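> call design_seq(struct)
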């Protein structure tokens, strides 16, 4: 599994910069007042690298195009091509923007709009360098008619037409692809650089053209060259970033985009279906587009299935994070009358995201599966029977479970020892470790991983599961209280 090299401090630095709007040019918010399936949907760019995820036809490209419309360098037809007779649906489309442009206003955000009426687009657009990488970038060279001149045996290129890709670009491309590309070149077929082909080198030094490149390889090389050549504070738009790429290359590419956002102050917005593309991003950097609804948060592919109705379960439960998900799973598994296999539970990367996803799900008239939301005890979201939002016991989940086990540690230590994959006779040692960690821990989110390290480098998930299972056994009243609240939605085993 790929481990991102992006440091938490770098994530925080970029997050703070975006929140303070410390840019000369930056798109802060786009409001789709009316555009395709969207109506009054607002997307805020809280991080300079933003992923748009969702099913095909959900609206990802619509959001991407709406962002592009703000700037003069993009023509509307690049994203919103229209047939005058057939595309009546475009009438009265309207998009609003909150944007930073220090050349126009040094202190305040600007308001801008784009609208379609009377058969044309009206925009009070701004000047900004916009670099767009569409799906066509992954078209193999052998299928591109504009490259046919490179196959003519009489064509010979001068030294001026063969340009090395550059040291900086080569360094970053090599990291993404995992191979040395320092000797690669770009061959220009016209003086404007509009038509070009890549040239590579084998380990023995033999040259070969882009006709023998993989589509993903050439796509990455061209994107990195384009981004490194782009002006600082540019807007980079990428459609289906993972197309033609190995999952590892996809993850490395996003790491590169975060790095270049830091180095050059660029803003990046890309669409994707890949979980690998969002692995390095904070939850605030991910927006899901689903049938005209925009939801912020790090939804995975499985939770998206629940929102689009692509599941066979009888109940969907949305929780705030992985710990809450694991806790709810332990609670439901502890009741033998509940048909647990018919329940899907998703960690949504934030309480607001969980509540919003649940609201969208059970308000969708086409949905055939019930949904509820279970928030953490310290969540600022409100419990609501009508909205099907319920609350876990305690204040902070990890600490609540730990503290309650600590209260009964004398009678639990043997049980925990076995669940830690240790002998029952080690219970006193296990008890001492838990007490020591409880005394020294400063961050309750790390408490289970710290116990795992002390016990013998046991995986945090095993430690967490042991605590949760033991808690369910020792605190059955709290278990029953939550189950009673949601019982009418729970599928039960028919006996």
């Amino acid at each position: 599994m790929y481990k991102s090299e992006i440091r938490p401090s770098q994530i925080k630095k970029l997050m703070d910069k975006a929140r303070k709007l410390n840019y000369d040019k930056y798109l802060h918010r786009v409001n789709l007042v009316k555009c395709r399936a969207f109506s009054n949907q607002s997307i805020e760019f809280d991080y300079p690298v933003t992923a748009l995820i969702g099913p095909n036809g959900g609206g990802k490209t619509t959001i991407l195009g709406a962002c592009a419309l703000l700037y003069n360098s993009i023509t509307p037809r690049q994203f919103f091509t229209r047939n005058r007779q057939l595309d009546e649906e475009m009438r009265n489309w309207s998009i609003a923007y909150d944007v930073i442009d220090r050349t126009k206003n040094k202190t305040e955000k600007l308001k801008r709009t784009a609208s379609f009426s009377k058969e044309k687009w009206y925009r009070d657009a701004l000047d900004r360098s916009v670099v767009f990488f569409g799906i066509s970038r992954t078209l193999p060279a052998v299928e591109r008619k504009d490259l046919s001149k490179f196959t003519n045996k009489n064509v010979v290129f001068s030294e001026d037409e063969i340009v090395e890709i550059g040291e900086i670009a080569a360094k970053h491309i090599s990291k993404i692809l995992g191979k040395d590309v320092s000797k690669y070149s770009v061959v220009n077929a016209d003086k404007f650089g509009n038509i070009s082909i890549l040239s590579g080198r084998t380990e023995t030094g033999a040259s070969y053209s882009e006709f023998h490149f993989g589509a993903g390889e050439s796509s990455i090389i061209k994107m990195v060259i384009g981004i490194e050549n782009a002006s600082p504070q540019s807007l980079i738009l990428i459609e289906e970033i993972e197309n033609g790429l190995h999952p590892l290359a996809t993850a490395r590419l996003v790491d590169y985009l975060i790095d270049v956002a830091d180095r050059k102050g660029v803003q990046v917005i890309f669409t994707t279906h890949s979980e690998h593309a969002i692995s390095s991003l904070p939850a605030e950097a991910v927006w899901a587009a689903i049938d005209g609804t925009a939801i912020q948060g790090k939804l995975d592919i499985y939770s998206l299935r629940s929102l689009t109705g692509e599941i066979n379960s009888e109940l969907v439960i949305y929780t705030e994070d992985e710990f809450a998900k694991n806790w709810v799973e332990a609670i439901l598994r502890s009741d033998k009358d509940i048909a647990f296999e018919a329940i899907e539970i998703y960690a949504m990367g934030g309480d607001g995201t969980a509540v919003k996803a649940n609201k969208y799900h059970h308000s969708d008239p086409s949905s055939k599966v019930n949904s509820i939301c279970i928030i953490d005890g310290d969540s600022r979201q409100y419990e609501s029977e009508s909205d099907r939002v319920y609350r876990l016991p305690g204040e902070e989940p990890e600490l609540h479970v730990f503290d309650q086990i600590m209260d009964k540690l004398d009678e639990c230590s043997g049980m925990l020892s076995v669940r830690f994959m240790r002998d029952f006779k080690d219970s006193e040692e296990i008890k001492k470790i838990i007490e020591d960690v409880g005394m020294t821990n400063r961050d309750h989110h790390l408490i289970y991983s710290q116990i795992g390290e002390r016990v013998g480098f046991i995986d945090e998930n095993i430690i967490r599961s042991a605590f949760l299972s033991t808690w369910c056994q020792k605190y059955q009243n709290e278990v029953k209280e939550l189950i009673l609240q949601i019982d009418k939605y729970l599928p039960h085993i028919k006996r």
